[in-house]
Amino acid sequence: MEEHLASVLTHITGFIYPNEVELQWSLLIVIYPYLTGLVAGAFILASLEKVFNVKELVPTYRLALLCALAFMIVAPLPLLAHLGHPERSLEMLVTPNPNSAMAMLGFVYAWYLMVVLLLEIWFDYREDMVRWSQESRGLKKLFYWLLCLGSTNLSKESIEFDHKAVRTITLIGIPSAFILHGYVGFIFGSVKANPWWSSVLIPIVFLFSAIVSGIALVMLIYYVTSLLRGKQPDMPCMDKLASFLLYALILDLSLESLDFIHRLYESEESIHILSELIFSKLFISLTIVQIMLGTVIPLLMLATARYSALPSELKRLTYVIAAILIQVGIFSTRWNVVIGGQLFSKSLRGLTVYKMELGGAEGVFSAIAFLIMPIIILYVLIKILPPWVDDDETDAEVEPVQVS
Q: Measured between alpha carbons, how far is 352 from 15 in angstroms, rounded to an integer?
């Protein structure tokens, strides 16, 4: 411990209090807003097809819902792992405190998962699950019968009700998704004592960056899963995804620029330490990774590929590379907000450094595990509830999950 403290002290510049040497929020708290952003962005993308009738996105509608559910299941786990006693998180549900932003976030999470996501997926898949139950035998028949809650009604009226229910839940889910991730930004923005976080634009910036990351995630997964199934990704769908991703990225960059210009215009007493923070501790993660690699380069790539006469395969590859860079940039954004906001002293006269650990409950390996877990859950969900639209139009239908 003393050796670690001595190592950190060698990287401190200026004046900093002894109790500010160790950062309170670690890499796991970076993972949390990153995962919730993917959830909100994927759901908003799915809503474009159901609510706004964007037919080009039909191939990714169900996939986007399953992505949102898989990442939603894992999203709170980094927070729980960060707690010394994760079982205490249940207290905010048993004895709710309306004055606690984090407690209210727990209720927003429960509402979004239980009422919005699960209900929409159930109504959207009910007709298919009834058919799978009728066509299957043994345990698989029982499995799908339980999933559809014993429903066997495939009448025209029942199916029409399912469609209306999905549309209604999606309409409710759009503001719910906005609240879910905007609330994460609200928690940071409401910390008035921290000039790096205290901004009215933080919730809005969080929201639009979430939309960007969610669209990029669904594009990546759709492309990879299409190739794994031996099918070419639908080009109109990829083009439409790229268009929405480009528009969202432009809005996100504009909002972050506006936030930066507003801070410069105010020129409060914190502007000097923030400037030193940006050009020293966060220069690589903010300027190089977030702005250049994660925003400007993908923006140029998307604009060039979308509005030029490139071959289809080259277009798809450009879209995918841009989506990967965007994921890196959004993760860097979360890093710069969470970690960057703890690197300067309360006296605004000194900077410290964050030392990551490889092992342990809050180390790099734990963070990687939390990032891999949603992919594994998504794989299981896809096996249980195949989302592929094109398989309904061909004889090569994906066989539902084998439960035996």
A: 9
Whether 179 is in a domain gets the answer yes
Domain, as residue range, for 152: 24-338+356-392
What are φ and ψ of residue 292, in 5° steps?
-75, -60
Contacts of 364 (CB under 8 A, 6+ apart): 27, 356, 357, 358
Flag whether 3 is in a domain.
no
Classify residue 11: in a domain, yes or no.
no
In a domain, 68, yes or no: yes
**How far, in Å, are 67, 171, 207 from residue 106 at the CA level?**
20, 21, 18
CA dihedral for 354, 360, 365, 370, sign (positive or negative): negative
Residues 215-229 pLDDT 10s: 999 999 999 999 999
Residue pair 346/295 in contact (Cβ under 8 Å)? The answer is no
Percent of residues, the chain, with pLDDT higher than 90: 43
Structural domains counted in the chain: 1
On whether the pTM is more than 0.85, the answer is: yes
